[in-house]
Design a protein that fits this description.
The chain is mainly α. The protein has six helices and no strands. Helix 3 crosses helix 4. The N and C termini lie far apart (56 Å).
């Protein structure tokens, strides 16, 4: 039961982080598309994307593949994990878009050509770039949390700062 609670808490916090990140990206896209009178529904995409990303990251974090640079400088670990997560999104996104194009063309080569030549390809690239930034921020926060001690980063952001009493001495205070 304890393991289940831990897993739910981990997935929940990851999903919340990704929901905020992906929601922000999709909101910006919606605002840009509104200029051309194109309506889009972002909430369901952000929720589903956040849940899938959270579970994928949780699963990948326990594999030896993702922890390959654990003993290397932190920036290498951050960049490597960001690359792997982004590559996974690129592969899944390509499969999804190619399946939609295949449904229309009924052949693989024309489906690939149709996707590359469509305006969706540029939107796909923009989304991939934005998602990679969300993964980069996630990995940076995780490394900082690891450096300061597990849980201290969330305490830094979410705990109320303690006010110093008037009787405490402050270095370099000449009063």
């Amino acid at each position: 039961m304890q393991a289940l609670k831990h897993e739910i808490k981990k997935i929940g916090s990851l999903a919340l982080f990704f929901l905020i990140g992906f929601g922000y990206i999709l909101l910006i896209m919606k605002l840009f598309l509104k200029e051309y009178s194109i309506d889009s529904y972002i909430l369901s995409k952000a929720i589903i994307g956040a849940l899938v990303a959270a579970k994928a990251v949780a699963i990948m974090d326990v594999t030896p593949l993702i922890n390959r640079f654990e003993k290397a400088p932190r920036y290498l670990s951050i960049l490597y994990k960001t690359f792997v997560y982004t590559l996974a999104v690129v592969i899944l996104g390509l499969v999804e878009h190619l399946l939609h194009a295949y449904h229309e063309t009924k052949a693989i080569a024309p489906a690939f050509k149709s996707f590359i030549e469509s305006e969706n390809f540029y939107q796909f690239l923009a989304v991939i770039l934005c998602i990679s930034i969300v993964f980069l921020m996630h990995n940076i926060f995780r490394e900082i949390d690891s450096y300061f001690g597990k849980g201290n980063l969330s305490k830094f952001f979410f705990d109320v700062p303690q006010l110093k009493s008037k009787n405490s001495t402050i270095p370099n205070d000449k009063n």
